[in-house]
Amino acid sequence: MTVSARLLAGAALLSVCATTTSAFSEEVNVYSYRQPFLLEPLTSAFTEKTGIKVNVVFAKKGLGERIKAEGANSPADVIMTVDIGRLDGARALGVTQSVTSDVISANVPAAYRDSEGHWFGLTTRARITYVSKDRVTDTALTYEELADPKWNGKICIRSGQHPYNISLIASMIAHKGEAAAKEWLEGFKSNLARKPSGNDRAQVKGIYSGECDVAIGNTYYMGKMQTNDKDPEQKDWADSVRIVFPNSEDRGSHVNISGMAMAKHAPNRDAAVKFMEYLSSDEAQKIYAEANFEYPVKAGVGASERVKSWGELKADELTLNEIAKLRKRASELVDEVAFDDGPAS
Ligand code: FE
To answer: Alpha helices of the chain — where are they, by DSSP H?
Structure first.
């Protein structure tokens, strides 16, 4: 074979490869802790709009470590996850990079993004009180009141070390100071109906079964229970409770985020920025928030009718950067008061 013939054959092979592997000229690789059903509507809408293909790797844990291990060769462009703990944790692990985008800055309020562009919130969820419809008449509650002896033996909550609770406790440190937050946590612990265990929905089940009158949980679980056709008993759990948004008469309810970050060595950075900008748009905000009964971060994009039916959310304006800084101390306080040991018998 002559040199030119070989080149020709090689070129033919390349073009075959190009057409069989992908019809897309641009791609973006997403590493996601969020479930496929949540991302699929977004990725297909984005691809339809831009022609950019989105490849998604799903995992329940270890994505940050995986990106770290892959190093400079990591195919990861965008990380999608929930909770400030995980977003800031990815930054702390050194697997993110800063993104500056006028589009994202205009769409995502400053309180819900890293001041240095390492992570951005896409949806918010409030950590609220579920109260028994039958046994609780209060229409307003505060986090502070969870330490009030009037709730002795009546409150259910998952482990104090769960990231959702750590952020809530960090917000208490930010607002009240460390000493007051610790005292609060001690009072809260002594009001528990049982040793913290199970997930958020298990606490609502505790109200349904009569073990507790007040449960702490994230807002979207109400939607997940109300619409649960796979496990219809959860509809009964949901039906036994009302949501009371804590501190709605003062600073507002504690909120956390689901969000995104640019991976440190993103090989498709330009396409990834376009994807991130799309996720902050009205259209994507609506799709994403509705899929998991959450609140869009972008002002003016309303929550779904179901979410609105739970009452009005007034969100605490404390920045998530501030909460991220206090998470470690919050975790130490949980251990110092032995929160997870439950109420003294
Ligand atoms: Fe959750």
So the answer is: 3-21, 36-50, 63-70, 84-92, 102-107, 163-176, 178-190, 200-208, 220-226, 233-239, 269-279, 282-291, 305-308, 320-336
Phi/psi class of residue 255: alpha, beta or left (left: φ > 0; alpha: ψ in -120 to 50)? beta
**What is the per-residue pLDDT across 13-38, written as a single tens digit (0 to 9) for each?**
333 334 444 567 899 999 999 988 89
Predicted structure pTM score: 0.90
Relative to beta strand 255-263, strand 78-82 is antiparallel
Could you list the residue range(s) of the whole structural domain that residue 145 is in?
A: 125-253+314-341
Query: For helices 320-336 and 84-92, what crossing angle results, to 10°?
Result: 100
From CA 104, how far away is CA 281, in angstroms rounded? 8
Is 144:188 a contact under the CB 8 Å cutoff?
no
Residues 145 and 200 in one domain: yes
How many angstroms separate the alpha carbon of residue 221 from the centre of ligand 1? 7
Could you tell me the distance, in angstroms and rounded to a whole number, from the CA of residue 217 to the centre of ligand 1?
9
Same domain, 152 and 292: no
Q: Is 90 exceeded by the pLDDT of residue 313?
A: yes
